[in-house]
Amino acid sequence: MSEAPHEIAAGFMPLLDSALVVAAHEKGFAEAEGVALKLVRETSWANIRDRLAVGHFQVAHVLAPMPIACNLGLTPLAARSVVPMALGLGGNAVTVSNALWQAMAGHGAVLDLSPRAAGKALRAVVVARGRQGLPPLRFAVVHPHSGHNYDLRYWLAACGIDPDRSVEIVILPPPLMADALGSGVVDGYCVGEPWNTAAVMLGTGRIATVKAKIWRSSPEKVLAADARWAEAAPEALAALLRALYRAAEWCADPANGQELAAILSAPAYVGRPAEWLMPALTGHLAIGPDAAMEVEDFFVPQARGATFPWKSHALWFYSQMARWGQVLHTPANAALARETYRPDLYRAALKPLGVALPGANAKVEGALTRPTAVGSAGASLILGPDGFFDGSLFDPDDLDAYIAAQGAAEAV
Amino acid sequence: MPRASLAILVIDENRIRASIIEAGLREAGHDNVTLVHDVTGIARRIAEINPDVIVIDLENPNRDMLENMFQLSRAVKRPIAMFVDRSDQASIEAAVEAGVSAYVVDGLKQERVKPILDMAISRFNAFARLSRELEEARSELADRKLVERAKGILMKSRGMTEEAAYALLRKTAMNQNRKIAEIAQSLVTAAGLLEPGDEG
Question: What is the domain-level CATH number for residue B186?
Fold first, then answer.
């Protein structure tokens, strides 16, 4: 350990997937790497963005597409950002109000989390409402540049529902969502945990489908670092990445689930009951009154390269920004998105640990239908399955064709 | 040349702070100021007010929602963006530190917005200072009460004079390198534990 510790301030939002950052601090992994990690809980993603930009934070727990949006100039105030690590895979779900669920059940939906069946029933409800002249259903997500927004839109579009014309999508902070569902302000939402479980526990909604079934092993939160700082303090960044990797291993051990839930439930972190946090950690999800389901890979903190910052993930998010009109697709913009994620920094930092490091920087998303051993340095590495529910593939080398083809689906 | 008065909307859940900002704006000659404390139905309010400048406290958890609405919503007749003076990094930092930011309609001149943001920053800082002082005053009062109780306990249980009781507390605090109030708190707690309780 170095004598003068690396002082790093990290912003985070009170969500289950802040687990890696919180555990790095609480379980001493940061300290063991010589990092004095100061965690600062924030109230909005905009605050995290601003405080990264003015140098209050060197790093932050952020929505995976956010640093890309910052580098593309889509946000008012933004530090040039790099993503040297992902903070796990999955963790989101789509929750709908009891009333909407009843309507969907009337069109054949059953509580089994199948994105295709739930989407089909939802489409029928949307069509019926249109015929009756009812206002469009309203869904909430946490941020326009979020996995939630792109997951929800991908699912709707693939089920033949136009996310811009057939439904309304609004922005709401996660802690308000369960209540908004109960009061009828929104009919559904896509959010991370514990805010889906919250609606089930409070009796205001049911989980219709999950991110892990829409796109298995897909990215959700990442570590963003202020690029100026990352360049000036490479040793501090590398030490932090090693601490976070150790924290990810600790979070992934089922034996630590109860302790992790207890830590996260404290007011300084998520500030909600530990019972609300356990479902995501165990994959045993309560999805409605008296209905529960085991969901494979619901939230993956460490296994199968879950912390590796795949350039194919960055480019898929970019493809969705282009799809929904947030950015114009140009070779320069695609390059900015690609260069935001930095697997080189990840490898350089973790090499001394001798852990499994993917040999490639990108992969064809959706290609693995079963767990597969892949080329790696260090220990052996298993990746996948990583399929999209509609069976499509995203080949980052075929970005232009993918962007050109999407959105052509027939929608109501 | 007389300028049309700017419509200014202040969104702050803290009513006192919002009033302080409003007073500052009125002193600076802005008479078209609206305060909103609760963002419920904010889209309709914005459509009615049609503001040129929106001042927001950064603690508001709805900031992501508001930013998105300013850009996209049909309620907003003109696009609104966060006011960022790129030539003035210090001012950006001062705003984030103070916990306030200004959003302005597209095309509004920087020199008309800058004084509003500067005023908001100084008022936010003044409010934070006041809150801190009030909090300190409160805890000082609480400390004083604790010390009084601790003195009373010592006077009663050990037959000390008030002066001797205070001297003992002070000496103990100095020896342990702690505050008198902390020693008083321990003593009061201990005395409470030793008192004959209700439980049998």
Answer: 1.10.10.10
Closest Cα partner for A365 from A386, A339, A343?
A386
To the nearest whole angstrom, how far is the Cα of A33 from the nearest Cα of chain B? 30
Which ranges of chain B have pLDDT less than 70? 1-3, 73-75, 195-200
Cα separation, A320 vs A155, in Å, equals 12
Work out the minimum CA distance from A3 to partner chain B, whole angstroms: 28
- Residues forming beta bridges with residue A8, ordered by sequence position: A37
Task: Say if strands A167-171 and A137-141 run parallel, antiparallel, or are unpaired.
Answer: parallel
Per-residue pLDDT band for A284 (boundaries 50, 70, 90) equals very high
pTM: 0.88
Of the residues B63, B64, B85, the best mutation for testing chain A's interface (the one with the most A CB atoms within 10 Å of its CB) is: B64
Element (H, E) at B57: strand B53-57
Cβ contact A24:A39 at 8 Å: no
Q: Under an 8 A CB cutoff, do A175 and B61 touch?
A: yes
List the one residue out of A385, A338, A320, A393 whose CA is nearest residue A150: A320
Judge contact between A42 and A224, C-beta under 8 A: no
Taking alpha carbons only, the member of A169, A217, A224, A277 closest to residue A45 is: A224
B64: nearest CB among A46, A53, A55: A46
On whether both B84 and B98 belong to a single domain, the answer is: yes
Which residues of B make CB contacts under 8 Å with A?
A: 58-65, 67-69, 81-82, 84, 89, 92-93, 96-97, 101
Nearest Cα of chain A lies from the Cα of B61 at a distance, in angstroms, of 5
Does one domain contain both B145 and B88? no
Q: Which two tokens stand for residue A389?
A: 């529910």
Q: Which domains does chain A have, with CATH numbers?
A: 92-214 (3.40.190.10)
* Cα gap A374→A380, rounded to integer Å: 8
The tokens 């905009």 sit on which residue? A46
pLDDT at residue A1, as a whole number: 47
Write down the ipTM of this complex. 0.91
Beta-carbon separation of A54 and B59 below 8 A: no
H or E segment and range at residue A282 = helix A274-282
Of the partner residues A51, A55, A173, the one whose CB lies closest to the CB of residue B65: A173
